[in-house]
Amino acid sequence: MIETRIESSICDGSQLYTAAPTQSFGHIQSRYPPVDNMQQVFGVVASHDSDAWQTEAREPLCWLQQALITDSFPAYLDDYARRLGPSGVDDGSSELLRVVVHVALYLRQLEFALPADAARVVLEAYIDVLAQNHRELVAAYVPYLPVEAQTEAYAQFLSQQQGTRAERVQLLELAEQHGLDTEAISKRTVELVIDRHASSELPGSSHADQEQGRFALAEPAEAISAGELEQVRAIEWVTNSPGLYEHALVVTCTLARRFLLGGRTNAAAQLFNALPPDFVQPLWVEKAQSIARRSSDVMPEQLGRSALGQPPHERLDVGCTVASHFQEYIHMLSLCDALAFYATWAEMLSKRPAADAQGQSTRQQMQWLEWKQSIVHATDHAEPMFRARMLDTDWLGTQSLFIDTATTDSQAQQRIGELARLRRLYIPESVFRLHAILFDTRDVVPQNLQRSLDLAQLVASDSLGIYRQLAAPSPAHPSGCLPAFIRLMRQSAGAVLQIQQASQPGKPPLLAGVS
User: Fold this and answer.
1) What are the angstrom distances between the C-alpha of 128 and each of 88, 90, 185?
2) pTM for the whole thing?
3) Hey, CA dihedral for 58, 64, 65, 71, is it positive or negative?
4) Measured distance CA(265)–CA(263) in Å, rounded
5) At 310, is the pLDDT very low, low, confident or very high (cuts 50, 70, 90)?
6) What's the pLDDT tens digit per position in 135-151?
7) Is the dihedral of CA 356, 360, 366, 368 positive or negative?
8) What is the Cα–Cα distance from 279 to 243, expressed in whole angstroms?
9) For the residues of 412-451, what is the DSSP string, one character each?
10) In a 3-state reduction of DSSP, which class is residue 513?
11) Cα dist. 45→32, 52, 497, 506 in Å?
12) Which of 181, 382, 415, 460 has its CA at a distance of 20 to 30 angstroms from the CA of residue 122?
């Protein structure tokens, strides 16, 4: 056979094959002993004489590759999470973090066992990185966190966003697309923003005019601070859907109380103006009117015991809570409207032209008449804003708000205390401003002088208890505001006596006007 002949020729023909000279590998094997596994391979590479090899072996991505090849990624993930620490991630390591996170997520999908705490740490760190430059991707990664951590994580992210309302709505829509609980997230977000500012002292909270016994209030046109604006804008998170309006109502009242307790009526007014046009729901109005009609037939302890979110069969109590906060909202809104209009009225009063007198030109007389007509109209509008909408209505009283004063709930007790403080602050202020409206226009509306004196009867009415608010002591006014009110009544009474004496010069002052 031909194969046999060829094989015989090769074997016998030494001229056809000459063995090449070789060196022994003994010297290499002595320096690099044989390896049994991949871990030893990486150890040999790391200890190689070549600086380039050692540098490459120390690259973070090489460590990750080594962990994957040697099946030690869980231990690597634990160590990586510890090395992240509280300082977070810098720009240089964000790329490695991205790779580690995606490897971990992929292995978890393949049902590899990974340390849960370490996986959560690196994922939260990556979410923080995305929040800086890729906000639209945050919602895609939050669902990989444990269920109990998803709402808090996304709410923390949203609480730092200062974009437009449309951008905020878009972030919530992305969360909904990825299956997150947007209602819980919205509620938690506004809570985080407000709590962040809770410990900071509101400006103007301790200022008072000691001499006049007046509480210093921000002017309606005064700009609000950056912190106040952030809190006002926080309400956007719970007014993006009508389904959250009830919760938004409670939050609005809570935040408005905080502003008003600090004298920041301008911030409270801006908060009310930030609410959507359809915020007030017809059901709230109906419920408040219904409870008000039957309040005399219901024991006080049956009112105000509910909390939002109770079972459907307890909707009556829920409606009572909503009605209570709606009444509070109306009362505080009335205060802001009254104070804002008072500022307009005071500015109009300050622009008073010279009084009508002989020798004035026709133009000057027309200016006087126009001003008089305007101030009379403004006065007629301002008086009921303070009296009919506030002083005659048991403003922020527990009975008018359907509040159970015997409740043991801590939040309800805090609310009751804040409402009481607001009454002590703003009822005297309203009385003083109403007196100014009436007394300062006595020359253009003569009957206003007597009406300013009649405020004594309003204050003394036991059904309204206004005198209690004037008499209540405070750190700024240990004797209360009642002495200041008495001085105003003396001022009005003195002006009445002067007019009576001028009209009947023949009689002593005390007998003038007596027929």
Assistant:
1) 8, 11, 17
2) 0.79
3) positive
4) 6
5) very low
6) 999 999 999 999 999 99
7) negative
8) 11
9) HHHHHHHHHHHHHHHHHHHHHHHHHHHHTTTTTSTHHHHH
10) coil
11) 10, 10, 108, 121
12) 181
Q: Helices (H) and strands (E) in the chain — how many of each?
A: 23, 2
In 42-171 the beta strands, taken as DSSP E runs, fall at: none
Separation of alpha carbons 311 and 277, rounded Å = 29
Total residues belonging to the chain: 515
Q: Which amino acid is at 189?
A: T
DSSP state of 236: G
If pLDDT is split at 50, 70 and 90, which confidence band does 407 have? confident
Q: How many CB atoms lie within 10 A of CB 266?
A: 22
**8 A C-beta contact, residue 353 and residue 415:** no
Long-range contacts of 66-70 (CB under 8 A, 24+ apart): 66/42, 68/103, 69/38, 69/42, 70/37, 70/38, 70/39, 70/42
CA-CA distance, 184 to 180, in Å (whole number)?
A: 9
pLDDT in tens, 285-295: 998 888 877 65
CA dist list (Å): 494 to 227, 286, 435, 489, 498: 47, 47, 14, 8, 6
Better-predicted residue by pLDDT, 86 or 484: 484
Which pLDDT score is estimated for 273? 96
DSSP characters over 187-218 = HHHHHHHHHHTTTSPPTTTT-EETTTTEE---
**Rounded to a whole number, what is the largest CA-CA distance in the chain?**
164
Cα–Cα nearest to 303, from 187, 416, 469: 416
263 and 216 Cβ atoms separated by less than 8 Å = yes
Residue with tokens 């449309």: 166
Residues 268, 224: contact at Cβ < 8 Å? no
Distances (CA, A) of 192 to 160, 197, 251: 10, 9, 12
- Side chain identity, residue 409: D
Q: How far is Cα 308 from Cα 318, in angstroms, rounded to an integer? A: 6
Give ∠ CA 496-499-503 in degrees, rounded to 5. 140
* 358: enclosing H helix or E strand: none
Residue 225 pLDDT: 94
Place of tokens 């391979």: 41
Q: How far is Cα 469 from Cα 446, in angstroms, rounded to an integer? A: 29
What does the block give as tokens for 104?
């971990």
Contact call for residues 139 and 178 (beta carbons, < 8 A):
yes
Which residue's entry shows tokens 């951590």? 149
- Amino acid 305: pLDDT: 40
| CA pseudo-torsion sign 55, 56, 60, 62 | negative
Q: Give yes or no for residue 466 having a pLDDT over 60.
A: yes
